[in-house]
Amino acid sequence: MSPLPRHDYAGLERYDPQRAPVRVDLSDNTNLWGTHPAALERIRSADTDDLARYPELYADTLRAAVARRFDVDMECVTTGAGSDDVLDSAYRAVYGPGATVRYAAPTFSMVEPLALMNGMASLGVPWPVALDDPSTLLEGDPDLVYVCRPNNPTGEQAPLEWIEELLRLRGDHDALVIIDEAYADFAAETFIGRAPDYPGVLVARTTSKAYGLAGLRCGFGVARRDVVTEIDKSRGPYKVSRLAAEAAAAAIRDDQGWMAGVVGACLENRRRLDSALAGRGLQPLPSKANFVFIPAPTGRAKDDALRLRDAGIGVRPFSGIPGLSEGLRITVAPWDLMEDFLSALDGTFPELALPKGGKE
Ligand SMILES: *Cc1c(COP(=O)(O)O)cnc(C)c1O
After folding, report:
1. Distance of CA 215 from the midpoint of ligand 1 (Å)
2. CB contact at 8 A, 87 and 110
3. What domain range includes position 277?
4. What is the value of pTM for the model shown?
5. In the listed set 253, 279, 296, which residue is the last one of a domain according to the structure?
6. 89, 125, 83: which is closest to 104 by C-alpha?
7. Does any ligand 1 atom lie closer than 6 A to the CB of residue 208?
8. Is pLDDT at 334 greater than 60 in this prediction?
9. What confidence score (pLDDT) does residue 48 get?
10. Are residues 304 and 318 in the same domain?
């Protein structure tokens, strides 16, 4: 009998976010200001003779840059081909028969597929319930607890005290708690430097968003060294290519100049976009990230996203969001692109448009 297909892969599909090419793509939260110049410079000046050799086993140059940036020991840093890969390695590190994942829902679209890919069961706890009582995330003794902070797709950021309470409650359980900080570069407050102070906590980060390096596939995580050792076992050697590790390390070493400028411009444009949307009756959720989440204009998220796509603008539709039901997630970008989005919105949904002469 053929081992394919795996019986537990029946519910799994190849990832397909229906992302046909579009004039302005605001659907994936990548950095529309471009790529970190220090990374570009590193790639342009790379010694390509090196490519005949394997990269560092565990990307120690990158680990050292991360350790320095967040003031942790290098042994407390793991890396991967994107933070999806760091998450995948963490899932596999805790896997065992009957292993389970609990997460606050809605959240990052890879959390459930990663569970299925790794033969684990997953269970979402609605955000309002988890926020009210973090112990709901530990019910049934899960092997893994996933929290995204700031959260994709809603943009909200669980209070620091809430994280601390979750980690205190975790003391009675064995779960590995993953705090995904993919958007923390845009938020004032982060947990990454404190991860090694707690047993069983991994803070995951990516260079795909604020650093503008999604094409490189490079992510990292910080945890206590015993946790990192276990995750590195399931990660395996040579996971991050030489160019990706060197370019990401250069960007991380120099994240004050260009990055600070991009983050500042992004927060300013988010504020402007918020008020432009509110003026059209589409009140965004309060966001701490480089995207905003609004109710779908007609209440049918998929249709609305398709209509905007016909007008040349890609946004990401979501359905079944507790308290909101149908919504659109829009990446914050340089203002000329935000104007393109707003005029496509007005052209597509004229009933929302500001009175003529209304100012953004
Ligand atoms: C985009 C995103 C990631 C993916 O990061 P990669 O490094 O590109 O794999 C991880 N987590 C969340 C919440 C994201 O939105």
Report:
1. 12
2. yes
3. 15-32+258-352
4. 0.96
5. 253
6. 125
7. yes
8. yes
9. 81
10. yes
